[in-house]
User: Fold this.
Amino acid sequence: GAVVSQHPSRVICKSGTSVKIECRSLDFQATTMFWYRQFPKKSLMLMATSNEGSKATYEQGVEKDKFLINHASLTLSTLTVTSAHPEDSSFYICSASWGTGTQTQYFGPGTRLLVL
Amino acid sequence: AQSVTQLDSQVPVFEEAPVELRCNYSSSVSVYLFWYVQYPNQGLQLLLKYLSGSTLVESINGFEAEFNKSQTSFHLRKPSVHISDTAEYFCAVTPRGFQKLVFGTGTRLLVSP
Assistant:
């Protein structure tokens, strides 16, 4: 149980275009979803937290207009990288959790974005 | 605020040898503690967690970790590693009552024959 999927697993785009990444909880309802960015050989950096039906809460230094997050349902959250540039190239990972008592996050397999 | 320190960026070890991956944390409040494993080009998988109760927690694949409050540590151990254990291991904490995970920088475990 507690499976989280991401689509696409890998995407290459031209500079200036927008890219949408989907994160789905397959066998549970995710009240909260998280988006992380992982730089090569570095740890995960939390970008934002989203609760279903609410606006996402962004971490300091993350541009909300550049990284649009939508959590439209209890099983789907999307991250849209708008007007992507080469410096946005990274590994983006989502996670999901449910309920108010548990603190366990279940992670998706990640999406590797390459902006040319 | 919380922080996590993983002292070793890389730990090479021979197959069937024991291993310990170190994790220390800093927090002014009580925390939950986690170990996640990341295989190449994959997302993170939960290995084990400490929420409350017994300070020694175990995973299904032979890893264990012990919460030591006085030393603010949560070291991960395995008595005999396999080649398939080669991966990146992340220690993480979150304050009780919150869901914001703070990760360490990771330790790459390299198991060789």
